[in-house]
Design goal:
Rossmann fold, alpha/beta, binds NADP nicotinamide-adenine-dinucleotide phosphate
Length: about 280
């Protein structure tokens, strides 16, 4: 099958590209770094020529509601419009568990993700929506963002300031304040498996939730991440702390009872990550 993976160079995108290639499919990773811009439409017509399936694993560089909405609305509209013209028969997109609830109550980044989902549902292109809980890989960004001056956590802090180290230094001072919420995080590899399996099935024209095996208080999850990194910062729950610019109800990030649960445990994943990071580069 010929499959275009928009955001195919990102965290989940690169894992999905590798899985699909291993399974023998013809895969095109599409991102600005490969000459395709889903927001402006640049390179889309050529990239989608002959594609049977499009997977959207892109993310916005802007985490505020206006910036994220501008990105997800224009980008999704372009992907659906060019996709329909190219005869795409399956549009798969990755979004976040709880998006619909958070878009109603708090808006912010989730308002933009909800707009993306609504465009997909209302288009004539058959689709499958994958809802995942918070990625294990994202917990580090949650920790760093929680120590910033605002105490708020941005949706793709990893994309924006945090992985580029801007706020990490200031976040190292003082205590981290986390919303009093529960999370049931999932390994990025498991998200990639869910997206791959969904892509290779028939379009469901529905949303399916995927999650990990364990529920944590957000502060406990962040504590485990800090401990693994020998980071001495203390963590405390703060009912006023915001997450993705949102105040959170305690169960607002949790999936429903029908979610598919993968078995990878956070602490096993932490150990494997730390082993991999301590190996000399040549041995990897
Ligand atoms: N973080 C979480 O815990 C979580 C949980 C559930 C769902 N999600 C969702 O998962 C999705 C993927 O997240 P991720 O962390 O894997 O993303 P990521 O690592 O930040 O990767 C984003 C990808 O999008 C591409 N991209 C950005 N702007 C683009 C544009 N204008 N045109 C084409 N490609 C563009 C980037 O490549 P270039 O920069 O080269 O363009 C990159 O390949 C997001 O939509 C997010 O909402 C996240």
């Amino acid at each position: 099958m010929r499959i275009v993976v928009v955001g195919g160079t990102g965290l989940i995108g690169s894992k999905v590209v590798a899985r699909l290639q291993d399974a023998g499919h013809e895969v095109t990773p599409a991102a600005r770094s490969t000459g395709v811009n889903s927001y402006t439409g640049e390179g889309l017509e050529a990239a989608l020529n002959g594609a049977e399936t499009v997977i959207d694993l892109s993310n916005s560089s802007y985490t505020d509601q206006a910036g994220a909405l501008e990105f997800f609305y224009s980008s999704t509209l372009n992907l659906l419009t060019y996709g329909r013209a190219a005869g795409v028969g399956h549009h798969v997109a990755l979004s976040v568990v709880g998006t619909d609830r958070l878009a109603q109550t708090e808006r912010g980044y989730f308002f933009a993700k909800d707009a993306q989902e609504t465009l997909i549902r209302r288009s004539s292109v058959p689709y499958s929506l994958v809802h995942a809980t918070q990625f294990f890989e994202f917990v580090r960004s949650i920790a760093d963002a929680a120590g910033g001056s605002s105490g708020s956590v941005g949706p793709d802090a990893s994309v924006a300031s945090l992985s580029r180290g801007r706020s990490a230094a200031s976040a190292r001072q003082g205590r981290l304040r986390l919303a009093e919420a529960s999370v049931q995080p999932i390994a990025g590899d498991d998200v990639a498996a869910a997206v791959t399996e969904t892509t290779l099935g028939e379009p469901t024209n529905a949303t399916r939730e995927f999650t990990g095996p364990e529920i944590f208080a957000l502060r406990d999850l962040v504590r485990l991440e800090l401990r693994a990194r020998q980071d001495p910062r203390e963590v405390e729950a703060d009912p006023l702390a915001r997450y993705f610019g949102n105040t959170l109800a305690p169960d607002e990030l949790l999936p429903g009872p029908d979610a598919y649960r993968f078995s990878t445990r956070f602490e096993d994943w932490l150990r494997a990550r730390d082993r991999a990071e301590s190996e000399p580069a040549a041995a990897r």
